[in-house]
Amino acid sequence: MDVNDKLDELAAMVAGARSMPMSSSCVLNRAEVLDLIEDVRRQLPADLARADALLGDADGVLAAARGQADEFVAAAHDERMQLVSQTQVVAQAEREASRIVAAAEQEAASMHREIDDYIDAKLANFEIVLSKTMDAVHRGREKIQGRRAVEQLADLDLSDPDEPPRS
Questions:
Q1: Number of domain units in the chain
Q2: Which residue pairs, CB below 8 angstroms and at least 24 apart, start in 81-86?
Q3: Which of 14, 25, 123, 157 has its Cβ near the most Cβ atoms within 10 Å?
């Protein structure tokens, strides 16, 4: 199960928990909730490592694209130098070199946009997971605080102070 599944399970557990009478609080099995939270904690480092790997892969893809572009430019330059002796051939080589450079730059820019979109999608997904986790933690803490408030109210002496104590 991934982090989203664990968060869904935690949310279902909270949603299906037995309600406290006259309260928005509920009763949850502390061990089960803590186990789910610990599972999410264990899985998050793996998701972060995958995101780092994706970022590292993006740099590698960009470097490869730049290398290909440099190779295209170098090949065009070599070809142009070989054809310098003839004017028409030189003009044609310059046009071809420009086309190759433009195509390589366009391909590199396109790859960069695709990589950025891919990384952004992965980071957005990770942001959603973190947000759901934070929401679940926040709701859990609110429920605990609500339960404490109910317990404090139950402990208050609600008898009338003017009334003599009962024996």
A1: 1
A2: none
A3: 25
Report pLDDT for 139: 93
Q: Could you read off the pLDDT of 63-99 as tens digits, one per residue?
A: 787 888 888 888 888 877 776 666 776 778 889 999 9
- Does a structural domain hold residue 15? yes
Model pTM above 0.85: no
Amino acid identity, position 18: R
Q: Which of 100, 98, 94, 99 is nearest to 72 (CA)?
A: 100
Domain that holds residue 74: 3-133
Give domain status of residue 150, yes or no.
no
Report H helices in 18-159: 30-82, 87-155
pLDDT computed for residue 84 by the predictor: 65
DSSP characters over 67-90: HHHHHHHHHHHHHHHHTTTSHHHH
Query: The tokens of 153 are what?
Result: 């109210």
